[in-house]
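From: lab user (bench 3)
To: helpdesk
Subject: output format question, protein + glutamic acid

Hello, I'm new to running complex predictions and I'm not sure whether the block I got back is the full result or only part of it. Here's what I submitted:
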Amino acid sequence: MEHLSNRIKNMAESATLAMAAKAREFKEKGIDVISLSLGEPDFKTPKHIQEGAKEAIDSEKYFAYPPVNGYADLRQAISDKFKRENGLDYTPNQIVVSNGAKQSIVNVMLSLVNPGDEVIVLSPFWVSYTAAIEMAEGIPVLVKGGLENDFKATAEQVKAAITDKTRVIIFSSPCNPTGSVFTKEELTAIAEVVRDREGLYVISDEIYEHINFSGAHASIGTMPGMLDKTITINGMAKGFAMTGWRVGFIGAPTWIAKACNKIQGQVTSANCSIAQRATLTALTSDLGPTKAMTEEYGRRRALVHQLLNDIPGVKTNMPQGAFYFFPDLSSYFGKSDGTTTINNASELCIYLLENAHVSLVTGEAFGDENCVRLSYAASEENLREALKRIKDTLAKLS
Ligand code: GLU
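Helpdesk reply: Thanks, we reran it on our side. This is the complete output you should expect:
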């Protein structure tokens, strides 16, 4: 007999990780699946960062519990990074290092949201935002940007969604899953809506900051009056190919950083010591390897854009950042191969997994039921083969 809490019973499984697990199952059965479901760099963590970890182990100085919010020198390096790269003035006391940006987001939600509070989520959105809000017993309020507006919700829409119960607005730029990048002007307009509202905060998820083809990354925390209202999320997974190291961090008003520190002290004690030392190396070294990876993503972006546009009935924007496409495949809904009828994006993803042996993630999980998410953090060879398989399989539907 199971007696699970309502909290866990009501929680959605992470759609990205669930699809990745399904692809793995297929692979274990010997099926040659090309996995474009997980947003995970296919590059290795750059050598100098690996060396940073090795040196930390060899020094035998980092085997004990680190400070809950992270080593002081690392928090200083993060504070410097925020200043240097983003123009954000967070002191080391305003930084908390966690087990991935995901934990950072959960810490902040638990710190700010009371049961029944509303959290505005700019949609399409990353799957774990709504789960984090619901963990805090808050209510996600989705404000949707459509393909016609490059998937970007506007300041007017945000303004219309704000109520007395709104506590937080959360979004990512560059955006997972759409790759859209909010411009300085768009963020300024959102900041204007938020600035004078007491008790309203913005969580700005900037984990894809370095994978940006638009030439400009803007942080909403730099807009006038916004630093005291903004929690900036970042981490090492994407720009530094360090998904498995699990390092995320926030810059936040001191009282929010203290609250996150308190939660973390009860939940994980701290982030892994060796991963923190590797992060220090990464943040105090040249960004050459990060830039080289981004250039390679740029080449793949152009390739995938061309291959997607070769498939009849596919509508897509040209993403300006991250490593995802979020094409609208709804023209295939209602079609059949004679045996199976495709009714929605989830069924289409399963169909493509079973018949094309390519794994994607349904757009339903990200707030747009017409779309699927494709991660192009994969080799050119795999991308070409995957897009060919998708095209051939979709051609069987009529
Ligand atoms: N953030 C990545 C993604 O969206 C990794 C998986 C996850 O944490 O959701 O695919």
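A quick orientation on your result: The chain has 13 helices and twelve strands. Let us know if anything else is unclear.
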